[in-house]
Amino acid sequence: MKKALILAGLAILALAVWMSMIINEKLSERQESRVVQAETPPSPDVRLYKLEKSRHLKEKRSYETSDEGETAGENRENTESYKEGSGDQSGGAAFQEVEGAMAERGEEEQGEPQRSVEEVKSEIRSVIFDRFVQGYNTKDIDRYISAFWKDGFLFQVEGDSESEFTLTDLDKVRENESRVFGSYQYLNYTVSDLNIEVDESMKRAKVICHTLLVGGGEERLSPYSVSSGEMRSEGISTFVMELRPYEGHEEWRIKEWYFEPLLRPE
Fold first, then answer.
1. CATH (domain of 130)
2. What is the DSSP letter of 148?
């Protein structure tokens, strides 16, 4: 019995030694294989493949890093630009646009700047003295006629049925006064005691004044002549004047003229 046990133990020991030898042999082969692989350089194809792969990876990382940086930079610039525009430019531009629109609307509603009553009266006096009076006294028919509006013109002499008459053709006035200019050696037209009333629209006015016309020469054309070779016409004139557009601007002129003589023929 003891002998059998001794034999069995020897068999187990021998198996264990054999297994150990096999394991050590396998480990030795693996180590040798690794050493051979480490000592043997890779083939040219393998090296080229690895280099290409490494370069590709580097380029990819560089592109991704650059793209991310540019995107981040653009986003940062856009964000800063938006903040600056929102705070300084966009808000200011929007306010300026609204302000400009309001100003334009105000100009459309108001039109030209409103003038004072005194400024309007000064313009009216200029028409009466610089055009009406000076045009007549210098025998400048164009200057005289420029004191009147042709459209809607009316000249009326008030009095009795025999002396009263009406004229609505400004061209006829030009013709008659041109004949007067050529018939008298001198003409003196004076206007005084002006009373100017401007209505609320500032586009219409009434002027009441004293007028006196004296002319000297051979021919007597007026029924109000008082001596040989002299013509005299005196009375109260009422001018109805209007402000109208003319050649890109507005100006005052006489639309209606009512004349009431003070010296009547005998």
1. 3.10.450.50
2. B
Q: Given pLDDT bands bounded at 50, 70 and 90, which one contains residue 86?
A: very low
Q: 234 by DSSP, 3-state: which?
A: strand
Number of domains in the chain: 1
pLDDT digits (tens, 9 = 90+) for 28-81: 666 665 654 545 555 555 455 555 556 656 665 655 555 555 555 555 555 455
Q: Which domain holds residue 143?
A: 117-261
pTM, rounded to two decimals: 0.55
Q: Is 53 among the domain residues? A: no
Domain assignment present for residue 162? The answer is yes
d(CA 247, CA 44): 95
Give the CA dihedral 60, 63, 68, 69, nearest 10 degrees: 140
Within a domain: 223: yes
Tokens matching residue 170:
């400004």
pLDDT digits (tens, 9 = 90+) for 142-162: 999 999 999 999 999 987 666
Nearest residue to 112 via CA among 200, 243, 19, 209: 243
